[in-house]
Amino acid sequence: TSTVEDVEKKTSKSYAPSLYKLSDIQVEANKTYGYSADKVLSLVQSLYEEHKLVSYPRCDCRFISSELAKSFDKLLKPISSLEGLKTYVENISIDDMNRISKNKTYVNDEEVNKSSHTALLPTGIIPDISKLSKDELNIYTMICKRFLAIFLNPEISEKTTVITVNNEEKFKTTGKIILDKGYTEKKKKKGTDNEI
Which of 73, 117, 170, 188 has the most other CB atoms within 10 Å of its CB? Predict the structure, then answer.
């Protein structure tokens, strides 16, 4: 028989990650789709040059300029045309856009000036999905989802730690419960947490 000696609960918030720079999307597309770095560069280059759907691809910056932040509504518009994302875009308010435009995690002129290019972003042009290859659509969707995520609520979780005693030995058990999925709602999460 075990005796519970201590239970500690903590609520934590996890905010959307930074926007993509080229190397970030190359790593994530490799994990998700098995694409090589060269293939990702080629796909992003095609989305930029041929389709005009994304910003300059050879960037090493994860930030947006304050000037570009004034166009958030325009940049969000094409995301509505992607499957399952329209409702999320429609629920983003002017207040949400203003809040993010003041958030240095995503909007930072100093960082943009260091690299002279912004993070990878949709350009605001409505895509003709039928003209994109499956691979192009995968990469375009990744860029759009990463951008959309910064406007959504954080993921809120309750982490629990339980200390039990059995035969004078102490055992520590941890787990968490997701209270609000926030920006992770449309993301497939790998791995599982123990629910306590």
Answer: 117
